[in-house]
Write a structure and sequence with these properties.
The complex is a heterodimer of chains A (889) and B (493).
Chain A lengths: L1 H5 L7 E2 L5 H7 L52 E10 L4 H10 L11 H17 L4 H13 L13 E4 L3 E4 L2 E3 L1 H10 L21 E7 L8 E2 L5 E2 L2 H21 L4 H19 L20 H5 L5 H6 L7 E8 L7 E5 H6 L1 E5 L5 H9 L15 E8 L2 E6 L5 H6 L6 E5 L5 E5 L9 E9 L4 E3 L4 H4 L7 E6 L3 H11 L6 E2 L4 E2 L6 H10 L4 E3 H10 L10 E3 L2 E5 H6 L8 E4 L19 E5 L2 E4 L4 H4 L5 H33 L12 H26 L11 H28 L4 H8 L5 H8 L3 E2 L1 E2 L2 E2 L24 E2 L9 H36 L3 E2 L5 E2 L5 E3 L20 H11 L1
Chain B lengths: L1 H27 L4 H26 L3 H31 L12 H14 L6 H13 L7 H14 L8 H10 L10 E3 L6 E3 L2 H9 L8 E5 L8 H11 L2 E2 H4 E6 L4 E6 L1 H7 L3 H9 L4 E6 L2 E6 L4 H12 L2 E3 L6 E7 L3 E7 L3 H6 L9 E2 L2 H8 L1 H18 L6 H12 L19 H7 L2 H11 L2 E2 L4 H7 L17 H7 L1
Helix pairs in contact in B: 1-3, 2-3, 4-5, 7-17, 8-16, 15-16, 16-17, 18-19, 18-20
Chain lengths: 889, 493
């Protein structure tokens, strides 16, 4: 037993072939002849569609064929068969049947090609086969060539035109071919000609494409459901099979009784219809078979097809155990590697632990703990939920309850497996849909916490693209040691700080982390030592305190020194911070805005810490620490920076409110003047246009030119209004601070709030649609002015006029529609991309190969560099190497 | 890889050389005139034959004679013109030399030195180039070349990709994920404010789809030598490229009483476009079953068998008649770019024809029609084009995606020698595995086809292994190493 389990069998390959009538009969457990399912007592009828030999669905019953039960033994079900009175065409294969008929002779069954042609095509096919090329074109050519000849080159019989009447009837020069005739014809085709008809002679015969026997799927495939009322409801497939059997029976009776040809033919066609819809109920050209309620039946093809079909929804993705889902919320005190899991979930989910001599005592204790009930409901006391014992090859799963806990613990032996509840420090996979990249699923260390939501550090929001407006996320527990090791090494959050998309950090400080650092370091100042120690203690700082300065008789500590405690000693950097004004001549150290950052040997000498230092995507310090000291150090830095800045921001206080957007009357006046100027300019443009004085841009009509000019003016008007507003808001304004430090929002947002909202656009143009020659009845017909075409001169703070509000809604609506369309389109594009590229792999020799063995690239990315490890896409940072070498001397 | 890049360059060069050779071949044509001569009369006789039969019907014997003489005259004129046109390329084809920038001597020496230091070790060419540039700039560094290379090698080896990495999936995700952040309906203006180009997500989808004609085809036509300096010459080239319809330069009026059509060319626009009456007449002559001649400043067109219906038909075709220019190029904008001189931007694209125009620089002229690049310049050029176009659309939206991810998409699309689309008609259709294809799209058809062909799924890829519930052959799943149990060893011993 032990040995048998240690050998894991692997499926080597899967062969596909057509079922021959003989094979169908051979694998059949029973012939199905009665269309009824159950008798009056509720027992399945023998040789009916629910014959117990086809497998069982009720738990406890034993299958008559294999003697196994449903649940534990897993009787897979067995096929039955229906002998069809007359042959019927398989809808899915009708096209290949047609091609076979078209390219062969009815008399001798040979290909309508001369021997020379045949030889040539054989050679071509062989060649294409060795070269792994697509052969479809050759097969098309063979059929084309065959159709051309009007006489069989072998027996001289004249060929006729084969036409396909969709969906399932064939005509030979106008005369209908019955399936029997087609079958006879196909039987004549010799085996050696099959390869030229795109049929594998080892696995298929053309006549098998015409059904004479219909396999009946096992009942497990089409289980009937007993409703609450005691009524039985049959599966769609069973319904369809009932139809097939009924008609088949009638057809047989009528034929045997020598009924008129017309009646037989009608019934035959009806049988064809039923079998066609049984196979595919969406065949074009025939009405779909419907349920009594009018709902179209879901038959075989529909079961497999599409997003909800077997392939995509049950085979490529499966429902899993050991998973949980709940709402997420933030917790700034957790490390980025950690995840707060609610007690309720932790109690339900388990991790298997094998009982050995080394841990048996611990395991027993674990089980016994089930009986002890903690006094505080918020206290978590992990125990075991199940014990799995193996006795004589049978697995036994015992549920641990408060009552049997002691008993079970006593009887515990080595070799058993206990399923223990979640504990702090367990690894678990955490995921948010849509899973667009690999960082959408990362491994976290569990920390069991009270209340009902998952909690994690805010820095981990960007990779999941999560926010806390009600988002839910999934948790998956790792059940094996191998998986655990892989998750630890490859999937932990800290291993995914660098995104493979562009080779930079995707996890870093966000929002308040940046505001906090900005507040702390913005001005070169000293803060009282007690406050400084409070901030430092938040990071868990254990080193020597920075040297205090005495100010007003009290010890103070410089803010830069506080930040420097987080930096490694060998860090030296120089760069411009996000709040840099992009002055024409950068004054470097003397920057008046304190925006030039200098770090030397781990000490912040100058500059403000903001998005460009600690932010995701752009954080320079973060980037450098990860490169030089590895992921672990990067994680520590993010953890500490976020803790420090949160401590700082809570100490200093930070708020933004509506009066942050207040601007003095003087500014308002300026803005109004600017807008008036712009409106005047637009008027003059319109005037010029009306008088035909406007000169059109090259390749543009005058109307287009006018629109473009006006758009230019309105854009500029908004910018100048924003600029004036920005000038009067000042850097002490919280909203401006957030915008400048890169924490949240932009200056554009602010200028829209306090300056002017600007031109509203639909499809990149000013708003045109609405009434005849005007957008709204408030305007004159033909008005081309700014306000009549969607220019919003008000600011959000002041409020919009009714017409402005309407235009603004139009622009907003377009944005919403755009997002809705975009998600579906880009989702499909990504699905296609993944499907096309999923099989690629970097080989040991550095080449990129397809799973088929075809070489795609001779060296990955032309230099073999991993984008996640590259430095902004470059293989090496040559400048750094040079400067290192220079300094080394 | 180094081999591949050089190969691709060669590919491109040869392809371009062929393009340049074309005018040279043309220049030979006059020598071949005997062949042409024999050909032309034949065609003329044919047409006249046809007309003769008609003539008999009409019993107007005089006309055909005139026609014949005229045709011959015109044929001569055409020949003359052709020779004229063909003389030009002879002069100019001498001028262009492949613009391979000779590597300065210092660089070459340095490169050799670096290669010596490297010995058997490998550093990508791009890194070596960077090192050379920096070392040449600062003289003191040359002494430390060994150290630089040692360190570079060290850090290069650190950045190498792991074997069995699922680079395809990472690439697909890296391109697909930012797709959600892209704008949808921006008909943005790229560089030139006057030309609309599809950008953002629709453009990316278009590239990945390998669409045969992009929704907004566009070309950047660079000029060479004096053409890019002299505005008149540039204008001349532009006139040859931009399509000019008869309707744009003249009034077409149908005389219903006499059943003739008059074309009154607008003098100004004709001059502007560099078209003379002869050109006009030639263009009009192409319409079948009509006759045209110049009357004063207008062209008169009469029908062979006049009817009201036919007259209207002909007027309609005349309106859409191309007089000059290249099919597909709708609009042209000439701009003076700094360091570049005059550059022509065109709406609409036709790479084949544009490259034939004298004065166009075939080395730098580009189009956003990837299929035509593949046709004209070869598959390697198309690959580079896909990379460039996709990279530009992404970075234009402010999205930073590593080039290598785009490269892998482009290589998958082009590795078969033709440009295959990403999707059910291209790459996915040709996948080895039945299950993988069935799981993607058109499930039932693929399964039935597999049954008929007796296909075998070897379970090599990702989707099929997930379906059967096995580890995938990628990443850690690719390692097929089984540790021998120690107990087994003991037994053997």
């Amino acid at each position: 037993m032990e040995r048998a389990r240690s050998i894991t069998k692997k499926i080597g390959n899967i062969n596909f072939s057509l079922l021959s009538p003989n094979e169908i009969r051979k694998m059949s457990a029973t012939k199905v002849i009665t269309a009824d399912t159950y008798d009056d007592d509720g027992f399945p009828i023998a040789m009916g569609l629910m014959d117990p030999r086809l497998g069982v669905i009720e738990p406890g019953l034993r299958c008559k064929t294999c003697g196994l039960r449903v649940g534990k033994d897993k009787c897979p079900g067995h096929f039955g068969h229906i002998d069809l009175a007359m042959p019927v065409i398989h809808v899915g294969l009708i096209k290949s049947i047609r091609d076979c008929l078209r390219s062969t002779c009815r008399e001798c069954g040979k290909l309508l090609l001369t021997d020379k042609q045949r030889e040539e095509y054989c050679d071509i096919l062989k060649k294409y086969g060795t070269e792994h090329r697509d052969k479809t074109y050759v097969f098309k050519q063979i059929i084309k060539d065959s159709v051309k000849s009007d006489k069989c080159p072998h027996c001289g019989r004249e060929t006729s035109k084969i036409e396909l009447d969709k969906p399932t009837s064939l005509r030979e020069s106008g005369k209908k071919l019955t399936p029997s005739e087609v079958r006879e014809w196909l039987e004549k085709i010799q085996d050696e000609n099959l390869p030229l008809l795109d049929i594998n002679k080892r696995t298929a015969r053309p006549e098998w494409m015409i059904l004479t026997v219909l396999p009946v799927p096992p009942v497990t495939v089409r289980p009937s459901v007993t409703l609450q009322s005691g009524e039985r409801s049959e599966d769609d497939l069973t319904h369809k099979l009932v139809d097939v059997i009924r008609i088949n029976q009638r057809l047989q009776e009528n034929r045997d009784a020598g009924a008129p040809q017309l009646i037989v033919e009608d019934l035959w066609e009806l049988l064809q219809y039923h079998i066609t819809t049984y196979l595919d109920n969406q065949t074009s050209g025939i009405p779909p078979a419907r349920h009594r309620s009018g709902r179209p039946l879901k038959t075989l093809a529909q079961r497999l097809k599409g997003k909800e079909g077997r392939f995509r929804s049950n085979l490529s993705g499966k429902r899993v155990n050991f998973s949980a889902r709940t709402v997420i919320s933030p917790d700034p005190n957790l490390s980025i590697n950690e995840l707060g899991v609610p007690i309720q979930i932790a109690k339900e989910l388990t991790i298997p632990v094998r009982v050995t001599v080394h841990n048996i005592d611990w395991c027993k204790e674990m089980i016994e703990k089930k009986a002890t009930i903690p006094s505080d409901p918020n206290e978590y006391c992990p125990s075991a939920n199940y014990v799995i014992r193996e006795m004589e090859g049978m697995k036994q799963r015992i549920k641990v309850t408060e009552r049997n806990a002691k008993d079970v613990a006593e009887r515990l032996e080595t070799g058993a497996i206990i399923e223990r509840q979640l504990m702090d420090g367990d690894l678990a996979l955490f995921n948010r849909q849509p899973s667009l990249h690999r960082m959408s699923m990362m491994a976290h260390r569990v920390r069991v916490v009270p209340h009902k939501t998952f909690r994690f550090n805010l820095s981990v929001c960007p990779p999941y693209n999560a926010d806390f407006d009600g988002d839910e996320m999934n948790l998956h527990l790792i059940q094996g040691e191998e998986a655990k090791a892989e998750a630890e090494i490859l999937m932990k959050v800290q291993e995914n700080i660098l995104s493979p998309r562009f080779g930079g950090a995707i996890i870093g400080g966000i929002h308040d982390h940046i505001s906090g650092c900005f507040l702390l370091t913005q001005k070169d100042r000293n803060i009282p030592i007690d406050i400084a120690i409070h901030i430092l203690s938040a990071t868990g700082f254990k080193g020597k305190l920075p040297i205090p300065v005495i100010e007003n008789g009290k010890s103070h500590i410089n803010v830069k020194d506080i930040f420097s405690t987080l930096l490694p000693d060998d860090l030296s950097l120089e760069y411009k911070s996000k709040s840099c004004f992009n002055c024409e001549t950068c004054e470097g150290v003397k920057c008046p805005h304190n925006a030039y950052v200098i770090i030397k040997n781990g000490v912040l000498k100058h500059g403000t810490i903001d998005e460009n230092s600690i932010g995701a995507f752009k954080g320079r310090i973060l980037d450098r620490i990860i490169r030089d000291h590895g992921m672990g150090a990067g994680r520590e830095f993010i953890d500490n920076v976020t803790r420090m800045s949160i401590a700082a921001i809570t100490l200093f206080g930070f708020t933004t409110s509506i009066d942050d957007e207040d601007i003095p009357d003087e500014a308002k006046k300026q803005i109004e003047e600017g807008l008036a100027k712009a409106l005047k300019k637009i008027r003059s443009l319109v005037h010029a246009y009306e008088n035909d004085e406007l000169e059109s841009l090259p390749g543009r009509s005058i109307e287009e030119t006018l629109e473009m000019e006006i758009m230019k003016v309105t854009g500029k008007a908004r910018d100048t209004a924003g600029e004036i507003a920005g000038r009067h808001l000042g850097l002490n304004n919280s909203a401006v601070m957030m915008a400048k430090s890169g924490a949240r929002g932009s200056m554009l947002n602010l200028s829209q709030m306090s300056g002017c909202v600007g031109q509203q656009a639909v499809r990149g143009e000013r708003i045109h649609r609405g009434y005849q020659y005007r957008t709204l009845p408030h305007f004159k017909k033909g008005d081309l002015g700014a306000s009549a075409k969607g220019f919003v001169a008000s600011c959000y703070k002041k409020g919009l006029t009714p017409t402005e509000y309407f235009f603004h809604s139009m622009g907003g609506r377009e944005g919403l529609v755009d997002t809705a369309v975009r998600t579906s389109r880009s989702g499909y594009m990504q699905r296609r991309l993944i499907n096309a590229l999923e099989d690629l792999r970097v080989e040991r020799d550095g080449t990129v190969k397809h799973s088929g063995g075809q070489i795609i690239q001779f060296m990955y990315g032309e230099d073999g560099v991993d984008p996640a490890r590259s430095i902004g896409g470059k293989a090496i940072d040559i400048n750094r190497i040079i400067s290192d070498i220079k300094e080394g001397v | 890889m180094a081999k591949k890049t050089t190969a691709s360059k060669k590919d491109k060069k040869t392809a371009e050389k062929k393009k340049i050779k074309k005018p040279v071949i043309k220049e030979e044509k006059p020598k071949k005139t005997p062949v042409k001569k024999t050909k032309e009369p034949k065609t003329i006789s044919k047409t006249t034959d046809a007309k003769k039969t008609k003539k008999i019907k009409k019993e107007t014997a005089k006309k055909p004679v005139k026609k014949e003489t005229k045709k011959e005259e015109k044929a001569k004129k055409i020949k003359r013109k052709k020779t004229k046109k063909e003389e030009k390329p002879v002069e100019i084809t001498i001028v262009p030399k492949p613009k391979t920038v000779e590597e300065p001597k210092g660089h070459k020496e340095l490169r050799e030195e670096i290669l010596k230091i490297l010995k058997d070790e490998y550093l990508p060419l791009s890194i070596i180039d960077d090192i050379i540039l920096i070392v040449i700039k600062e003289k003191g560094l040359k002494k430390k070349l060994k150290e630089i290379i040692k360190k570079s090698l060290e850090s290069y080896k650190k950045t190498l990709i792991d074997p069995s990495e699922a680079c395809g999936i990472v690439g697909a995700q890296s391109i697909g994920e930012p797709g959600t952040q892209m704008t949808m309906r921006t008909f943005h203006y790229a560089g030139v404010a006057e030309i609309n180009v599809t950008l953002g997500l629709p453009r990316l989808i278009e590239i990945v789809d390998a669409r045969s004609i992009p929704s907004t085809p566009m070309m950047n036509i660079y000029l060479r030598d004096e053409y890019c300096l002299n505005p008149d010459l540039a204008k001349e080239v532009a006139n040859q490229i931009e399509i000019t319809l008869l309707n744009d330069i003249s009034d077409i009026s149908a005389d219903l009483t006499n059943l003739v059509i008059f074309i009154d060319p607008d003098k100004k626009s004709i001059e502007k476009k560099g078209i003379d009456m002869e050109d006009l007449l030639d263009a009009v002559k192409k319409i079948r079953k009509t006759d045209a001649k110049i009357e004063k400043n207008r062209v008169k067109i009469s029908l062979d068998d006049p009817s009201y219906k036919k007259l209207l038909e002909v007027t309609e075709t005349l309106k859409g008649l191309k007089v000059k220019g290249i099919d597909g190029i709708k609009r042209i904008i000439i701009r003076k770019e700094p360091d570049e001189g005059y550059v022509i931007y065109s709406e609409g694209s036709n790479l084949e024809k544009v490259l034939e125009i004298v004065g166009v620089d075939p080395y730098r002229t580009t189009t956003n029609d990837i299929q035509s690049v593949g046709r004209v310049l070869g598959i390697e050029a198309a690959r580079n084009m896909i990379i460039q176009e996709a990279y530009n659309t992404l970075s234009e939206q402010g999205l930073n995606v590593d080039r290598r991810h785009i490269m892998i998409v482009a290589d998958v699309m082009t590795s078969g020698g033709t440009i295959k689309a990403i999707g059910r008609h291209g790459v996915s259709k040709e996948k080895e595995s039945v299950l993988s294809r069935a799981a993607f799209e058109i499930t039932v058809a693929h399964l039935l086809q597999a049954a008929r062909r007796g296909e075998v799924d070897h379970l090599g890829g990702v989707a099929e292994n997930i379906i059967v519930g096995q580890p995938v052959n990628l990443g850690t799943g690719a390692v097929e190493l089984v540790m021998k149990r120690t107990s087994g060893k003991k037994k053997k011993k």
